[in-house]
Fold this protein.
Amino acid sequence: MATKITWLGHATFLIETPAGKRVLIDPWVKNNPVCPDKLKKLGSVDLILITHGHGDHIGDAVEIAKELRPPVVAIYETALWLGSKGVENVSGANKGGSQVISGIRIHMVHADHSCGIQDGDHIVYGGEAVGYVLEIPDGPRVYHAGDTALFGDIRLIGELYRPTVAMLPIGDLYTMSPREAAIACQWLPSASQIFPMHWGTFPPLIGTPTRLRELTREIPGLLIHDLKPGDTRTV
Ligand code: NI
Ligand code: MN
């Protein structure tokens, strides 16, 4: 069995592992303007990972978690907030730590971004934004960078966890653009497949996979996926 990765648009991905586990990263589904309607009904989900508290990542987390009741991983303060909203089975963690859920080792890693949670008319401190590296048994090692600027320790993530697949934001304005993401690709030499994300959702998110391809032409064997929301790739 292979591992299947479906892009629901923006930073939201559904990963199906060889063991049949379904992992949802950044559950922005119902209110995600680019998520195809047919994918808005998720079916079973075995694990939810949240990179940070901005609405385009955590937006539908409470509703989905209450309906499907999988374990939910988030940084400690965001996990507390989810708990305060009635989400059960939340696993608060922090950067540098790892845990195993559904047989998958989940490393929480640094991201360079903010993490306020909009709750009604005020902003709640959500801890810090993070990324994840997932070690999928008999499958890839998947790095989801979350929303982030380029930072030097992406190199360390590459060295330590040797991800084989990387989901990198390229949209610009709130995150890296293709220019910075191209450097991240150089710093993740084990990652032979890149899933660009956080682009095209709104007009200001102007980075494109085509531009990232142009800027990484020198990296031998690198596959940059250019997906439409709803597309699936086997990795
Ligand atoms: Ni954000
Ligand atoms: Mn975002």
In short: The longest strand covers residues 104-110. Helices lie at 55-58, 61-68, 76-84, 154-161, 178-186, 209-215. The mean pLDDT is 98. Residues 54, 56-57, 147, 174, 198 surround manganese (II) ion (ligand 2) (CB under 6 Å).
